[in-house]
Amino acid sequence: MITWIMGILLIASFACFVIYAMRGGNLTIGFFILTIVWTLVYFLGIPFGVGEPFDVIKETFAEPALTYGPTIVQIVCGAWFGRVLVDTGIAASISYRTAKVGEKNPVLATICVAFVTCLIFTSAYGVGSAIAIGVILFPIMGRLGVPKRVAVPVFTLSIGAAMWINSVMFVQFAAFYQGYESPDGQNIEWGTHYLSFGIPAMLVQMAAVVIFILINAKAIENGTPYEVGDPNERPASVPEVPIWTYVLPVVPVALSIVFQWDSVPALFLAVIIAFFGTGYMKTYKGFVSILNSTAKTAIGDIGSLIIMLLVLRFFQHAAVTVMADFGPALTAVVPNNEFILALAVCILAPLALFRGPLELYGAGSAVISILMGMGVFNSWFLFAMLVVPSMTCISSCVTQSWNMWAVEYNELEPKTFLKNGVPVYWLCTFPIMGLASLLLF
């Protein structure tokens, strides 16, 4: 009887969290409240022989946060490198020069803009970086006459494609699986195994972006030039940086693949090369100034994200602890056929929108905690089940910060953005999940 009561309370609280997340509620607050509720539900069963008492302060709130340090370091370094690319002028220079190459052909120029955006965000991360690049690229597309309904999805889908090999995004998703004891003994970690899937996934999504542009080629060619944004927000001139620095966005990934480097030393080396190549190391004072300003801005960009991830770790411990007592019941209900589950996730991929049950940075965090609590699925399979819809959804959901900024900056109706972007990301889900089955799990 007590198990039924506990189950009802867990389902009710989970449903409330789903509704809260989908309505745009603050996830840090939501995770913290859900952690407390699920912990209380767990202790409700102890007097009746369900579960065993444990040190909540130590095991739920202390240890998960203290063991999360390495992930935070990787997130900070990735965000810092992204800010360095922006503040040294490398990102802006790449954007301007590439657009100039294709300015006589609007369709070709739009494709170039897409690939430049993807290139920059293979290492850059955060809404600050997206804004810094967007205020350059959107006016360029506006002058070319690219309709806003095309320009905005091209920008956001290209950022989303880059996220497949962005180490900052990877470690955030990997955090959801930290500590999971996979039946096959494998751990979710950055390296060649993941990148052997991540790179093809990025290429698939970029191919979809190109197809989207070509489908709208007539509208682009016949488009009327327009102004977008405040001219005062744009750089007054094209930053002068050496051409060879244009390869720096992919240097961290290349070092990980070729030399098996971890992301932190790879990012640090790329930062040093960026400062050196753009002349910011010519004087000690100038070097210290750019060093401090980029680090300060980068950490400010991700401060709230780090707090949310720490609270998420609290919830994960609570969820796995509680679900251990419900694992056998769930195993009898949830299908264990990987093909059926993968196909179902692809078909239902739009449920990731608005922080729904297939979005890890939403209600999906509770879903994955429940699945991990069952202890029957391998880690990379579970990674694909929620990361594929979450990652593709990043490209077209208005709850994603840089997407919302792009929509508002271009004064585009959110429903128009969704109408054009969602079909592209939804269709991408199927081949990318297929790649995951071949290369990841």
Automatic annotation (TrEMBL):
- Indicate whether Repeat appears among the record's keywords: no
Q: Indicate the transmembrane segments per the record.
A: 6-22, 29-50, 107-138, 150-177, 197-220, 241-259, 265-281, 302-319, 339-358, 422-440
Q: Which keywords does the record carry?
A: Membrane, Transmembrane, Transmembrane helix
Annotated signal sequence is: none
DNA-binding keyword on record: no
Protein's name in the database? Gluconate:proton symporter
